[in-house]
Write a structure and sequence with these properties.
seven-stranded antiparallel sheet; AlkB-like; disordered C terminus; alpha+beta; globular; Jelly Rolls; metal-binding
């Protein structure tokens, strides 16, 4: 049987000429925001694929659920080195790799990562009143995180630890992630700051003074009253796992169905 492929319509997207054009100016180091990274039709098709994934793919937590592709990590190592399914590959990864860092630097954001591209995707589903505690992603990944948001907007909070090591509960910055947007965080924001999502029904106090990427939003006027009621938001987080088990590749070929 021939493998099935996912066909996307011509995209209605607005990609920048370089990442430098969409750098979030109020954040340290390198963080980028592209409001229209995928089209509405692409968003719809990806959400359908997420929902139709086998039940065994879903891990149910207390208030939310998630999928991990191609597999969970074992001791910070990707054991299953199977390629990502096409619906997670297209159209996101080719677009990520097509955008140069700047007009003078033709490299893409993954040019210095071990595999030159993402090899792992975490899918998180956030219903209203659902969040995640501030945390760091740890040392399993190359320090580049690319997150595509689907379905609804919400605020990502960035936190800094106090001098005594305790978490400062007040976020240093807030980033509003719109549906179909791409957020890239790297370097210092990856290594030194924690990120989390507050478990609320609505994000409030939204303005150019409180939202770091306000000037890059698709439509800031949508939030002119400073309030956004959440709906279910699904995130696709693309990263390059540093260690990939060769044993996993060998086992995959041994148990591969003829």
């Amino acid at each position: 049987m021939e493998p099935t492929t996912t066909t996307f319509p011509p995209p209605l997207v607005r990609l920048p000429g370089s990442l430098e054009e969409c750098r979030i100016p109020t954040l340290p180091s390198a963080a980028y925001y592209i409001a229209d990274f995928i089209s509405e039709e692409e968003e719809k098709l990806i959400l359908e694929k997420v929902e139709r994934a086998p039940k065994a793919r879903w891990r149910q937590l207390t208030h939310r659920r998630l999928q991990t592709w191609p597999s969970d990590l074992v001791r910070n190592t990707l054991v299953d080195s199977s390629p990502l399914p096409e619906w997670l590959e297209q159209p996101v990864i080719p677009r990520l790799l097509s955008i140069p860092l700047s007009k003078t630097d033709a490299d893409n954001i993954f040019a210095c990562s071990p595999h030159g591209r993402p090899n792992h995707v975490l899918i998180n589903e956030y219903p209203p009143n659902t969040g995640i505690m501030p945390h760091k992603d740890g040392g399993a990944y190359h320090p580049v995180v690319c997150t595509v948001s689907l379905g609804s907007s919400l605020c990502l909070n960035l936190h800094k630890s106090k001098e005594d090591g305790a978490l400062d509960p007040e976020p240093v910055w807030r980033i509003l992630q719109e549906p179909r947007s791409l957020l890239i965080t790297t370097a210092e924001l990856y290594t030194d700051y924690l990120h989390g999502i507050e478990p609320v029904a609505a994000d409030v106090d939204l303005s150019g003074e409180t939202i770091a990427n306000w000037s890059l939003l698709r439509s800031p006027s949508t939030y002119r009253d400073g309030h956004h009621t959440r709906q279910t938001r699904t995130s696709l987080t693309y990263r390059d796992v540093l260690k990939v088990s060769k044993l996993g590749s060998k086992l995959g070929s041994v148990f591969k169905r003829p």
